[in-house]
Structure formats: structure tokens, C-alpha cells
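Session log. Operator J.P. requested a structure for one protein chain; no other inputs attached. Running the standard single-chain path with C-alpha cell output.
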Amino acid sequence: MNFNTTIPISKSSNPIDYDSRIISLGSCFAQNIGEKFSYFKFQNTVNPFGIIFNPVSIENLISRAVNNQKFTENDIFFHNDLWHCFEVHSELSHSDKTIFLDRLNQILSDFHLQIFKSTHFQITYGTSWVYRNKSSNSIVANCHKVPQSQFEKEILSVATIEKSIQNTIDLIQKVNPNCQFIFTVSPVRHIKDGFVENQRSKAHLISALHNFVTLFLSKCNYFPSYEIMMDELRDYRFYAEDMLHPSQTAIDYIWKRFSENYISEENFATMEEVCSIQKGLAHRPFNPNTASHQKFLNTLKNKIVKLQEQFPRINF
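Structure written below.
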């Protein structure tokens, strides 16, 4: 007897391999998937400007990077002893104004080059709810704990999201016409918006993505991470303690479903070898001076050398 339903996923016609260059952008679930790519030693860039939840803010950063539009003093502000930027996550905020601006522009410069070289963009949208800064009339990526009175909360329409997706793809393809796109909706529940409001938000994202992706199947894929969480993993035991984020078990399961369909099967053996090495490196012996442990270390070293002969760029 089968106690869950399995969502059918079509295999990618342009799968990821160890020569691919991947950029993972978006919500904290993009971070989860990006960390999996990094663990298995794929060439991967994850959220260079931190976690970004809504499509418009992702589009704005892509536009800035593609056009190499540097951050200036007009783009930053001082609040609660730190310099912030409404376009990026607070993890980048800094107490020193010059260091903060220099860091933003260095990340921007690196991201600009990465967009040119990347083969796959994995973009995860988290929410349709956005905050608009009243003084600039612009949508922010992060409010940085600025008083709520300075913002208006609104939900992006399906049409607005579709337009933002189109703009994002057009910007990237202007400089990198051969890249592939994998879109997904984050399975993280944004309950702070409200239970009904969260579902409405996800519905807008899903509707916009399906309206768009079906027209551009040669370049775009939709991976149903939200649907897998809601249907295949329909149980609170697959959530973390906050009952909002997927547990590690759920992340591992969704990654398995992703890798089965979006990574080239010819690379599965290499992934298994990388995983074996990673587990070996994480092993902590009770007594590191024993002969058996020294033999273990020597075997592990030989595995790394052999793998690096095939993939010289891989480092552990």
C-alpha cells in the first residue's frame, strides 16, 4: 500500500553536470538547494546579496548587476548603528560606511561576471507580499527593522509577477542567451502574513510561473518544491520546530527529487564519491593515533587525489 502520492516531474533536456555553472537566487529554500550544490562540489553561487523573497527585488538586483550599476551613497542609509541597503539582506549591513559600499560593489562586480558565465539559474520565489517605501515609492527587499509606518504592504498581482519574470529573463539573456532557468516556489510558509494570505501569495506566484513557463519550455522549467512539500510530504513531521520551514529530512527528500530530474545521470557516481569523501572528512575518531585511523586517512586522501585528477577545480 502506498501512503503518499508522487508528483510526476519531467526530466530536464538540459541537465546540470560538473561543467555547469549554477546561480541559485531567492528565498531561504534557494539557500537550501544551493548548499546541496556546494556540498556535492558543483560550481555554484548562492544568493550573493543574501536571501531575497519577492520577484521584483530579485529582478532589481539582476538589472543592477547586468547593467553594472554601482551602489552609491544614495542607495544606503544609517539605522540602529549600522549602514543598510533596501535592495539587499541585512546580513551584509555594516557599521562602517566605506567598507559597506566597497563590499556591495565588489559583490556586484563578481555577480556581473557570474551572470555572463552561468549555464543555469535556479530561482526560488518566496512570497508575493512586498513592502513599498513611501518616500521612494520603491519595493524593498528587506525593511531592516525600519518603522512599519515608512512602508505600505501590498501583494503583487499575477500580471506584475509575470512581467517581473519576463524582465529577469530578458536581462540575463541579453548577456547570456544560452542559459537555462529552473523556477520554483518556496515551500516555507509565511504565516506572519496570515494563513489565508500565505496561500494567496503562493497562488499568485504559482499562477504567474505556470502562465510564463509553459510558453518558454525550451529555456524554463518549473520544479514543484512547494507542491512536493504540500502533497508528498503532507505531515508536520517533515517540518522544523517552528512548523514553518521544511525539516532537514524534507530538504533532503526534495533535493533527491530535484537531482533525479535536473542533474545528469552520468554525474551520479561522482556525486556519490563526493558524498563519501565529505562524510569521511566529517568523521571524528575517538583516537586519531591508531593505525586503523591512519589507514582510513590514507584511503580518504587517495580518494580525493583520484577525484581531483578528473575534476582539478574540486577542493575539500
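Operator note: The CA atoms of residues 61 and 87 lie 7 Å apart.
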